[in-house]
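Aim 2 progress update. The chain analyzed this quarter is reproduced below.
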Amino acid sequence: MQTYVYKIVIGGAGGVGKTTLLCRYLTGIFKTDTAMTIGVTFFNKDVNRSGTCAKLAIWDLGGQDRFRMVQPQYVNGAKAAIIFFDMARLQTIMQIEEWLTMFRTSANPSIPVFLCGTKQDLLPPDAIKRANEEAMEIVASRGFTQYYQTSAKTGLNVEAVFDHVVDLLLAQSSVQMEARSNIANSS
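Predicted structure tokens:
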């Protein structure tokens, strides 16, 4: 079985639900009592796709400003990033640019970055529509890979986000392997 290891970094304002959503993804359980992430927390998950194993090293970066100075060193070497904002606290969308800049500067200018609105279950339909419209404007103007509205409570799009990240990374690895093979064969 072919195995790849991918570092994925997670960012966003404090209290937007990053750790709760990660807990839902990793365990399938919605936890209401996750503690504030101090600096960074590290998680692992193996994902199998058609005879290929993607070993995910997920780095959950604390959202508070006081951790920002040390975070770029944790971002180095990341293959993908996910930035979260709280759909119920739309002002958290204002921090997206700071996270995007850190990820593109410290990891790679062309790193695939996904945007996720969290806590969709807390909003009425008109507020969901407004949050999605604002998010889609940012996605279009800043070159995000994809936007997902999510809910750790209901599980909405939790798997879908990470499935998309894994599928994209595996596709990139496959292209790189093919290119190396072509170079070796032409020598």
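The radius of gyration is 17 Å. The chain has one domain: 2-161. These observations will guide the mutagenesis experiments scheduled for the next reporting period.
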